[in-house]
Amino acid sequence: MASRSGNPHLELWIAATGLSHGEIARRIAAAAKAQGHRQIAPDATRIRRWTDGERPRPPVPALLAGVVSEAAGQVLTPGDLGLTAAGPVLDSIQLPLLTEAAAQTLAGWTQMDLFMNRRDTLKLAIGAPLILAAERMLGGKAHTLSSDRKGFDTDTVTALEEVTAFFTRADASKGGGLYRSAIVAQLAEVARRIQDGVPRSLRTRVFTATADLAALAGWVSHDSGRYPTAQRYWSYGIYAAGEAGQPDRGVEIVTRMSHQMIYLGRPQDALGLLGVAAAKARMPVTRALVASQTGRVHAALGDERQADRHLGVADGLLADGLGENVPAWVGYFDAAEHAGARAVSARDLAGLGRDRCSASIHFHDALALRKPGFDRVRVMDRIGLAAALFDEGEAEHGAQAAQQALDDAARIDSTLVASRLNTLLQAARPYQTKAVNDVQNRAKDLAAARPTTVAA
């Protein structure tokens, strides 16, 4: 039975092949005959019914996917063609590598996020599907149908760049919870305009800004506890970076996905993603970022030798200099950010019984090096410092550092900060002084006000 909305994914991919409905039907019949399915012989009218929303029964979806894949020069699944029950909007973080179809999928995600409140239909991608999706998106080549139509002009692109920069600064300063809905709404508008057409002269700027916006939408969704939603926005960010001809931008977004896997207690998945990122990273700054993050994950796994090796690679790249023209989208990675990774690594290894340099030293380094404007991560460093001091037996200094950290944390809307508060509470547990009790009570109140998970 045909759906009222039709099947735009199939329609767009057939258009991308340049073949008529009659030729598509002929090729399906030939493929079916070769596989022994002599009863399958569609005509042009049947193809039109499928683009109108009728779903053919197996084995036709697989045959159709094979025919369209060969003609389009790209491997496609029945899900890419909108022929599964849920369609590509829900059942995967992989995007169809066709500009208009990818934008339609993104629009579907934003619509569910903003208007339908159906986060329960989204599943977190983990394990092999997650790693393979990241690898496919980083290495994919997109097709496009639109050319010089009116989705964007120079003023519109400039406005998009400016609003994305504003939201990025606001997130780094105050956390993304307050701005998340506005960021997603902006992304929905961009998805609509991309479907209207991106002029060739503006293509790089449009997709560069869109990659930044999608990466930010993913980050604020993650920071709000909407983990599957974050994955989907990040996947579009990787796709958009490829459209803009900026693979290293996609690499940076993959490191965000790996950060989420660390946060959710899946370090092996984080390593899988970072392996994909390392294979694609070309710029010194992204190579250093990947090495720093990889060292951190090995520390979480208790592998001291591998942690030291990868953290040392990042040390060397930072010492050699990351270049004069580090892009804004990765400008946050510097000696301060790496010191933060070393601090967390030292904390994790110490917790596993390794004899390490004190984590508090690295947290002090990170705080001393942080640039203005990165208030959230500075708060996280302060909380991490206080927790490290408790772990190192410095209860009095830990309580003092914690009070300053909690003053700052009260002004940040972030589940990442709430997670660090829980780490602080765990570290303070062995102590029973009045100063420590005051810290524990304040930290509990703040953590309760900012739960670390949201139903997803």
Q: What is the topological layout?
A:
Blueprint: H1 8-17, H2 21-34, H3 44-51, H4 60-72, H5 88-91, H6 99-116, H7 127-139, H8 154-174, H9 180-196, H10 203-223, H11 227-243, H12 247-263, H13 267-280, H14 284-300, H15 304-320, H16 335-351, H17 359-369, H18 375-391, H19 395-409, H20 415-428, H21 434-449
Helix pairs in contact: 2-3, 2-4, 6-9, 6-11, 7-11, 7-12, 7-13, 8-10, 9-10, 10-11, 10-12, 11-12, 12-13, 12-14, 13-14, 14-15, 14-16, 15-16, 16-17, 17-18, 18-19, 18-20, 19-21, 20-21
Which descriptors would you attach to this protein?
456 residues, mainly alpha, 3 domains, 68% helix
In helices, the fraction of residues equals 55-70%
Beta percentage is: under 5%
- Rg calculated over all Cα atoms: 24 Å
Ranges with pLDDT <50 over ≥5 residues?
Answer: 86-90
Number of alpha- plus pi-helical segments: 21
Average pLDDT for all residues: 87
How many domains, as an integer? 3
Give the helices and strands as they follow along the chain: HHHHHHHHHHHHHHHHHHHHH
Largest sheet: none
Instruction: Tell how many strands the DSSP assignment holds.
Output: 0
**N-to-C terminal Cα separation, in Å?**
31 Å
The structural class is mainly alpha
- The shape, in one word, is elongated
Short description:
The chain is mainly alpha-helical and about 450 residues long. The protein has helices at about 10-15, 20-35, 45-50, 60-70, 90, 100-115, 125-140, 155-175, 180-195, 205-225, 225-245, 245-265, 265-280, 285-300, 305-320, 335-350, 360-370, 375-390, 395-410, 415-430, 435-450. Residues about 85-90 have low confidence and may be disordered.
